[in-house]
Structure formats: structure tokens, C-alpha cells
# Entry
Amino acid sequence: MSEPGQIQAIWIKRMKRGPMDPVQTAQLETGRGLEGNANRGGWRQVTVLEQEAWDRATATLGVDLDPIFRRANLLVCGISLERTRGRVLRIGGCRIEIRGETKPCERMDEVHPGLKDALCPGWGGGAFGVVLEGGPIAQGDPVLFEDLPDL
# Structure
């Protein structure tokens, strides 16, 4: 396995279009997502944002914006999310299967003009996935992708 990244932040959204509440710890529930989060079940149980992608997008715009504005559940650093569909992200004993790219929407331009387009390249808006194995997670936990099987 490669060097692990790290969880930088965890956010829980109490209601659709509601505020994102920062938390130090959270519980991932198998097949459901984050305990207490408005969006549960389905294909988008957890959304993940890469710190480095956020930093590139905001630098392109010449602004310093808090990544909470992206409205993802998890902020990670030290790993690339680009083109990881089908891979499994491990956070401690938890496992999340990445199902696809989280495409930035028009709400990003409400935060700052041009942010939507700045987040488009290289999966800059992040990824979404389903929880295969739940459990507790915390800020600072190591994050890494499981090795791909030999073909």
C-alpha cells in the first residue's frame, strides 16, 4: 500500500441545503453513510474532498476560501481522488467504495464567481461513495486506497 493520507475535517449536514457542522469524530454506518447526516443511503452516502484540489481551485481564483463551502463530508489530504471510481478508500477499520466524481454545481458560484469551473478539472469537486464497512472515524485518522488486485 502507498503512504496514507489523513482526514483533515469532518462535516455533517443536518438537513438538505442546511449548514455543515464540523465535528472531530463521526460514525460511518454500513450501507447508509454518516450518522446524523441528511443524505443517507443510495449511491452518495459519503462525499470526500481532496485538500490539494481545493487549494488549487482557490489559488486559480486568487482567493482564500474555507473548504467547508464545498459541502463535502470529509476533507482529506495526501491522496489523490482523481479517477478512483471503483477503488476502496480505507479509514481505520472503515471502507468506502468510491462510486464517482462529485461534480461541482451552481452553488459554488454563489460562494465565489468562477469556483464551479475552477473545481471541474481533475475531480476537483471530490468523490462520492458508499460505506462498505462502518465504524468510528476521527480527524487525523490515516486514509489510503486499498491496493488494486493483480490483473
Summary: The chain has one domain: 5-145. The two ends are 16 Å apart (CA to CA). The mean pLDDT is 93.
